[in-house]
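Mods, move this if it's the wrong board.
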Amino acid sequence: MAKDNYGSTPRPALLSQDQFDRYVAVQKSGVTNMWNVPLVSELSGLTEDECLDAMSNYSLYKERFAEKHTSPCDTCNGE
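Not the wrong board. C-alpha cells:
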C-alpha cells in the first residue's frame, strides 16, 4: 500500500493509467476544486473511492505513469 499523505488509513494504489489520466484531465481543466470529490467523480467517470485513491496516491501514480497529462478533459469539453 502507498503511504497516505493525509494522515488517514493508507489506500491501495489500484488505478489504471487511463483512470489516472481522466482524473488529471479534470484537474488540468480547472473546472472544479479537486476536493469536490462528487463533482470530480461525475466529470471523470471515476467512483468517489477511485478519486480519493488518486488524491492519496497522486505522487505514486505520477511516477508510475511518468508522462505529461496534457490532454483536455473530454468530459468537460475543455470548459
